[in-house]
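user: can you give me the structure for this one chain? tokens are fine.
assistant: on it. calling the predictor now.
[tool input]
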Amino acid sequence: MKHIHYLILILLTLLPRQLRAAIGHDNAILSGYYSAIAGGQNNKINVGYMNLIGGGCNNSIATSGSSYVACNSFIGGGGTNCIDTTTHNSCYNSVVGGFNNLVCANTCYSAILGGCNNVLKHNFAGVLGTGLTSAADCAIHVNCIIAPNTPYYGAGGFPSGTYTYKFTCDLAATDKVIVMI
């Protein structure tokens, strides 16, 4: 999917500056340039440049009526996903899929990889799961990490720079989990 995104952006840069292409049903690009909606229904790119919505339903990039822009952002599909620009620009963000996910204004270089009802409001961050709100810049936010066959370091403990954390994902008492920090 990443290569398709780059290919479309390259093709868009070769065409006239105001190029905007919306394919599908009730899709619209209201303002900006070099943006595309490849399919789906009722998807909107309200303002900005070099944005892409691959498909899905009721997805939006940039807030209608806002003077701020979204740039170089991507929504792959799913439904009711939004990259917001209500109070500030929001650039270089991705929502790969899922439902009812929000990338907040003033968030850059971040991604929601899937799931539903997630809120991403930090830079250089990622979210994967359900019902999560990002808590820090430069972090991956998940509901649960299961790492079977993770090396165990015995009585000496874990390597420097790591810690253990008991997740609430119904792990068995004998499961070993390492989270790198």
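assistant: here you go. The first strand starts at residue 20 and ends at 22. Helices lie at 2-13.
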